[in-house]
């Protein structure tokens, strides 16, 4: 894969760009002058031209192309927009104000084929209802159908969904390796870091004491997941924490697994009342038990769609 290209001879600006690219999980090709940049001009997914090299770059009449940025550290330079037009850049970014936007642009450049995957969340109506098992089954089935699938364990106290799959010894990143990261995660880097089994990648918790997932970490993972995977399946805890609500706001559908017994239905109704504050498309999956279908529908049907599994 070709890397973003930076054209600058300004050491402080270059230091900033290298740091920003690293935050996006990207490595750079660096050309101090337009002559060095020529071989990369048509190949780089993104080109960031320092204001110090803009006029010299324009004098070489490079062929027009998309994804060219002019980057400056001087917001007061009255010549900035002239340089932008001369070099054929589509926009001007000023550091440090536009740093976060530049992180996103570098990350986009490293994800040339975003998949726009869907997020599905699963949650149990009570403990032991089988939501984690169903999440694992859905992810496995999707991956066997050749959908690139990410299974996300969002329950810190669930024991690790990798253990449910029988792959607790698999090498690869766990949540503890990702929670300290700030900003956007490159989808390709996420795929490469996680344990994978065919088309299924798994993000789980490590063994031992675990900390809650910061909501910004969940947001970064799900954004990378939807760019790099066809389907993202999230196994939620019953007691919603900030990271679980972050996942719910991004869910295309949320599946609530309820058991057809009195406490199971009553508990599921309570969970539903919490879910409705964060997501709209909620569907209940009812496991058979002593409560008949009509009673279960009366309790749950007004809150969501109902799917009955025999």
TrEMBL record:
Signal peptide positions (record): none
Which domain of life, per UniProt?
Bacteria
Supply the SUPFAM superfamilies for this chain.
P-loop containing nucleoside triphosphate hydrolases (SSF52540)
Q: Which InterPro entries match?
A: Cellulose_synthase_operon_BcsQ, P-loop_NTPase, ParA/MinD_ATPase, Rv3660c, Rv3660c_N
| Residues annotated as domain Rv3660c-like CheY-like N-terminal | 7-115
**Full protein name:** Septum formation initiator
